[in-house]
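Thread: "does anyone have the structure for this chain?"

Original post by V.I.:
We have the sequence but no experimental structure in hand. Need at least a predicted one for the grant figures.
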Amino acid sequence: MPQLGLVCITASKEVRYRTITRKRLLQLAPTEQEQVLQKLYKDNLQTLNNALDFCDRHHIQLYRLTSALFPFADSEEGEGILPQLSAEMKTIGDRAKSLKIRIVIHPDQFVVISSDTPTVIENSIKILQTQAQILEMLGLDRSPWNTIEIHGGKSNRAERLVEQIRNLPEPIRCRLALENDEYAYSATEILEVCQAAGVPMVFDAHHHVIHEGLDSYEHPSVAEMLAAARTTWPVAEWQLVHISNGRKAFGDPNHSDLISTMPSSYTNAPWIEIEAKFKEQAIKKIHQEWLI
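Reply from O.Q.:
Generated one for you, C-alpha cells below.
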C-alpha cells in the first residue's frame, strides 16, 4: 500500500510553526534580533517534535518539513544561530529515524537555479544550502530518501538546469529531485532533465493533467509517466509522487480542501505527498475511501 505524506502543518492547531516578517525583525536591535530568532527556532524545533508525535499517532510515515522552519537562517540575522542547536536537532533527527518517518523538504518558488539572473541563482543555491544543512544537522541521509524537491524554474532552460544541478554542492545534489509543473516543464521535459542530470523525478499527476489539458487521471500518460519517473530513483521503492485536486474544477491549479479523485495507477506509487488544504483530514479520507 502507498504511504501517504503530511505536508508541513495540520488543519487543526496541533502542528503550527511560528514565523516573523523581515520588517518586524529589522525593527529590533541586533541583540534583540538574535534573541527573538533563538526563541523562535527553539519553538519551531519543539513543533517539529510535535509533528513527529502526530505522524506516529496517525500512522503517517512521510512528513514534508516546512522550508520556513528557521526563518532567515540563510541571512546575516540568523545564520549564526543554527550551529547552537546541533544537539537538539540531532536528537529529533534520530527520533524521526527510530519512528521510521521519512522527512523531505520542498523549498519555495523563489528557488530558480535555471534563472537568467546570476543573483537569483546565487540566492537559490544559498536557500538550498540552508535546507541541506538542516537535513545534515538532523543527521538524515545524504540520498534522495530525504529528498529536497524543487521545480525546473525558467522554461526552455533544460541544458542550463542540467549544468547547474551537476555543479551543486554534494549535500544538495545527492538529495535533489525535480518535479514537473503546470506551465514551464512538462512531465516529459522534466523526466529528460532528471535523466541527464542523474537526479530523481517527483511526478505530480495534477500538474501533468493541467499541462497537457487532460480531463482525467485515467489518461494512459499518467500511468506511463508514473512508471517512467520510477526509473530515475536509485531505489524504486523510494519513489515519491504528489497528488492534489482542483479546487473549483478538475483543471484548476488551486488545491481543493480534500482529495476526491485519485489516479488508479497511484496504487503503484510507494510514497504520496497529499497536497490538500485540509491536510490530515484529506489523508484520513483517502485511507477510508481509496486505500481499502
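V.I.: this helps a lot. The beta strands are 3-7, 62-65, 102-105, 148-151, 176-179, 201-204, 240-243, 271-274.
O.Q.: and Residues 3-289 form a domain with the TIM Barrel fold (CATH 3.20.20.150).
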